[in-house]
Design brief:
mainly alpha; two-stranded antiparallel ribbon; 2 strands; elongated; Protein-export membrane protein SecG; protein transport; cell membrane; translocation; transmembrane helix
Amino acid sequence: MENVVLIIHLLLALGLIAVVLMQRSEGGGLGMGGGGVMTGRAAATALSKVTWVLAVAFIATSITLTVIAAQKAAGTSVIDRLGVPAPESSAPVTPGVPAGSDLLPPGAGDNTPLVPKAD
């Protein structure tokens, strides 16, 4: 389902780019040649309507892809997908002190070196 919506989304994006490039602009753009099947105001309104339809469809597929991605990712984490086991100890880790050390970190604002625990 996601792949189908994604392909439609990409086709809408390409169609939207093509229609926008065909429209007239102040400087001429790619539609500067004039003439052709549709000229004047009729071309502007028809291309404007097609642009609006493609834009609304593009936004709808964007929202659909967002909803599909959110449903797939519900309740999972990147770490869960890696398969890394959680650490076994629940004791807080003090930065700068090796695990299993019998040294206490210095007090806040205290410049004394690490000292052994008093038993």
